[in-house]
Amino acid sequence: MVCLNDNDSSSLNRRIPQQATCATMSSMSKTWAIAIHGGAGVIERSLCPEAADLRIRVLEAVITSAGAHLASGQSALDVVEHAVVQLEEAAEFNAGKGAVFTAEGRHELEAAIMEGRSGTCGAACLLTTVRNPVRLARRVLDQSPHVLLAGQAAEQLVGDLEQVPNDWFDTELRRAQWSQWKQASSEADARGPATVGAVAMDINGHLAAATSTGGRTGKPSGRIGDTPMIGAGTWADERCAVSGTGHGEAFMATAAAHTVAARMAYGGDSLDGAASRVVQEALPPGSGGLIAVDAHGEISMPFNCEGMYRAAADSKGRFEAKIWT
Amino acid sequence: MVCLNDNDSSSLNRRIPQQATCATMSSMSKTWAIAIHGGAGVIERSLCPEAADLRIRVLEAVITSAGAHLASGQSALDVVEHAVVQLEEAAEFNAGKGAVFTAEGRHELEAAIMEGRSGTCGAACLLTTVRNPVRLARRVLDQSPHVLLAGQAAEQLVGDLEQVPNDWFDTELRRAQWSQWKQASSEADARGPATVGAVAMDINGHLAAATSTGGRTGKPSGRIGDTPMIGAGTWADERCAVSGTGHGEAFMATAAAHTVAARMAYGGDSLDGAASRVVQEALPPGSGGLIAVDAHGEISMPFNCEGMYRAAADSKGRFEAKIWT
User: Fold this and answer.
1) Do B222 and A187 touch (CB under 8 A)?
2) Which terminus of chain A, N or C, has fewer Cβ atoms within 10 Å?
3) What is the pLDDT of residues A196-250, one digit of tens each?
């Protein structure tokens, strides 16, 4: 079944009782927090409950796994990478397998990852063969003196990471969206959830963010979006970690992710105050949303469009996965 | 004569008497301000006064022309583009003609331009044939729904802009630096002035910034630096316009240009306070500098390395071109 509009029934905007799923996590004395997203955009409420339910279940599985890893003491950096790998592997989301098609009918992927305490970051763009772009971004962070590498320059770091033919990323849903885009001949018709991401605070209070995307249906080959632009779609420092999703150009023109951190650092905003003001005041209405976590484990997930696939968990027992408000 | 270290005598750190050069400009009642840079980095004081003198004269010519255009009422956006075109055309600076060599012995250019009032921006990277990259960045701003286009995607907007063979960008100086880099086999030996840029406030109080570069000697093909990353090496909003120069990865990891604006917007810093704190506190020592102008026509040009080729002029009669303090 192909569900072009990523629709769902509103019953899936649910909060999962934490007792059943987070007992082990919340028994740890040290605090941690994690949020993930699977894209923001046009998510109509009226159709395709099966598709929405499947995505909610993927989000629940990823957030459960990520929470367990944080509870066991893994670093925020490792956990956001692992969470984004899982979202890349899920064909339901626009990153890795299931990435949207470019204008030319191919896939060009991009990803970024940043560690807050050290300020180290790595990003890769114009990727065509790397199965998990966020793993390559991590290698840029770990192994390269550079921050952003494109195409073959990035793929030289691939090492033992799996490479696949470009059409391995194909899915029926994304091909149908591409066909629809070609008929409309307009990127304005390519709206819909885009991008996956994760932000986390580990039990040492360190923060990290990671984002990965296939971009927008019908984008020209060579267009680079906000995801690999440090400060636009991805940011982490000692105060907060942020991953954005939506209309990339709006995030770039407003340095959206960095603005959340700057409002906290220089304006004294709370995490939720900063994140909400960026999404509701700086970004154009309908352009997307973001997830953010601060060094106290607070989580904020504002968006200014129909919906955002998102989930959050923490060591206090929070466990939720939502699409709409 | 090849001057590998971009050296000079300190006598060129001079302030030009404004009466001789700015009489026409300062007779205008409306205020304007402009600053330009030709790169920051290792600029030793002991050698090559001829090379330094030539660069100072280029800076003086460009700032004079730019000031006259602002005084005549041209927009900040048009003027920063024009100033950067002139700096690209000057073979003495690492942008356009005179760009450094990549590891492979070619040239890969990048540029960005941003208008402060509207927040519109355009950038291009991985360019190999466009004579004036900042003109192409302007076309991305004017003609594309995207912010950052790479390689052929950007060059599809080239229209009537001049294209040249890649070796047209060659100069004796940059080839010698590349040879030196190959012998050292280390990017650490590729320090030296990089990047050109301009920031301006026009007589309507609008701000704009533009930056252009050949990157770093010996960079791998596919490395994207801070110049085309909005918020890292280039930024403009209604409060300030910023163009950075130096170790690009440091500017990216600190969102340096946007941080200047954020300190002003949320922390209440003055332009000079914000710019100086970014350069002296956020960026690593020795990593570079930036030029910035605010909506009152104040100019700041801090750097944390040996020197920065820079010039400034305004409607009050300021006219200076400097290398060191």
Assistant:
1) no
2) N
3) 999 999 999 999 999 999 999 999 999 999 999 999 999 999 999 999 999 999 9
Please judge whether A147 and B221 are an interchain contact, meaning their C-beta atoms are less than 8 angstroms apart: no
Residue B104 inside a domain? The answer is no
Closest listed residue to residue A83, CA positions, set A72, A73, A68? A68
Per-residue confidence at A105, pLDDT binned at 50, 70, 90? Answer: very high
* Alpha-carbon gap, residue A128 to A108, rounded angstroms: 5
Residue A135 maps to a domain:
no
Q: Which chain B residue's Cα is nearest to A126?
A: B150
Q: Domain span at residue B296?
A: 14-96+111-120+192-322
CA distance, residue B261 to nearest chain A CA (Å)? 10
Residue A186 confidence (pLDDT)? 58
CA distance B121 to B316: 29
* Active-site position among B64, B102, B128, B195: B195
In the predicted structure, residue A146 carries a pLDDT above the cut 50: yes
Question: Residue B246: which CATH number?
Answer: 3.60.20.30
The answer to whether residue A195 is catalytic is: yes
Catalytic one of A102, A128, A129, A195? A195
Q: Do B249 and A145 touch (CB under 8 A)?
A: yes
Residue A83 is assigned to a structural domain of this protein: yes
CA distance B16 to B23: 13
Q: Would an 8 Å CB–CB cutoff place A274 in contact with chain B?
A: no
Is position B126 within any domain? no
Question: Are A95 and A86 contacting, i.e. CB atoms less than 8 angstroms apart?
Answer: no
- B150 to A145: CB separation less than 8 angstroms, yes or no: no
Stated pTM of the model = 0.92
Give the bridge partners for A211, in sequence order. Answer: A112, A197
Residues of chain B with pLDDT under 50: 1-28, 188-190
